[in-house]
Design goal:
binds flavin-adenine dinucleotide; seven-stranded mixed β-sheet; 24% strand; FAD/NAD(P)-binding domain
Length: 407
Amino acid sequence: MNKVKILILGAGPSGLVLGRCLHDRGEKDFLILEKEKEAGGLCRSLTVDGAPFDIGGGHFLDAKNRPVCDLLFRFLPEEEWNLYERDSRIRIHGMEISHPLEANLYQLPETIRNEYLESIRIAGCNTGEKMPERFTEWIRWKLGDRIAEDYMLPYNRKLFADTLNDLGTYWLHKLPNVSYEETLRSVREHQSYGTQPGHARFYYPKKYGYGEVFRRIAESIDNKVRYDSSVIFMDAGERLVRCADGSEYRADLIVTTIPWNSFETVGLSPDVKEGIKKLRSSSIETRYVQKSAGSKAHWLYIPDETLPYHRILCRENFAPGSRGYWVETRAERCGSYRDEEGGFAYMNEYAYPLNTIGKPMIMERLLKEAGKRKILGIGRWGKHSHDNSDTVMEAAMKLAVELMGNI
Ligand SMILES: Cc1cc2nc3c(=O)[nH]c(=O)nc-3n(C[C@H](O)[C@H](O)[C@H](O)COP(=O)(O)OP(=O)(O)OC[C@H]3O[C@@H](n4cnc5c(N)ncnc54)[C@H](O)[C@@H]3O)c2cc1C
């Protein structure tokens, strides 16, 4: 039986940054268990066809999160990154329109532009209707039926399939927010208005994929990361964890960043365990294609349901000296595309934690009960929250400060 003060489950950005910040503050008694042979989680990168390929999907560092950028620049200095103004577009009506669509209607032919303007004008949010609780209904409420049918519903069906009808609206702060007045103004002045989505300015390494910075952080605390250690069991009452190879660990405090439904748990109430079973997520395949995407954008959203993938990452536009692109496809849609295109591909079993209507309540109960047993959940999976890497790293940095004051 191994004993440790702080046991961290998972060496993705959350677990690594927590470990590194504990180390910076002089904590020696911690260990990270990671099921893979390398660290970085969804933010790992490989070299494919001579250039970076982010296996978890296109990964960009949001430039507005200064504390996180500064931490990462300690390991991959700022001059080794390029800073870009986001250029993401939607392929629709045989052309490319800047994202978000409602702030860039001026780029559309006049007839469609007028139909889309009318769609927003008579949408529920502009006619005094109460905001609905379901995401699908919110789409119609916010953008109107025409834009919903042409773009938002097909795109989100590709991404979420049947779960789309179960998604809530509590996570929509992640989406751009453009009012009807701002849409009108952007049509008049031919420029985008409204709250922009995340990554309006982002960093991407000049010579590497995003994963390089996490490889370096892991290397800096190498003796604290135990690879090939897949957690299969946790006794929450005893704070005991067992891995697939039979090794066992007991800790004063456990911080988990791995999916709660990926291991067996005892020592939590039946209610909470039932809740864990209801947590949903989706799997995403990334696949390299050697051709040019034929676009100047950094990435493209693809609502066309006759194509399996929902996003194209035009790597030649953000990874200097590279060619080709990669696509992101929900696992269930890969089908024939897999055989047609060939090429390198990677399946991310746990890619998107899904924001179903009941999830906030499930997670609140789970984290409260686990917290009483000194088991904390952080990161994309510990909180089962669709967060970007800078958000989870910032939370891990804060937790390190709190822990050093309290343990
Ligand atoms: C398609 C896509 C695009 C994205 N784009 C961006 C972007 O552009 N910018 C951005 O900032 N963020 C982006 N993200 C989000 C980003 O990937 C996450 O915020 C980040 O990876 C979360 O880090 P984490 O450590 O919490 O989780 P993860 O990265 O998932 O790490 C969890 C770790 O736990 C390990 N693990 C899992 N199960 C076990 C087990 N049973 N035992 C031991 N170890 C285990 C995993 O191997 C992994 O190393 C994107 C995500 C996706 C899916």
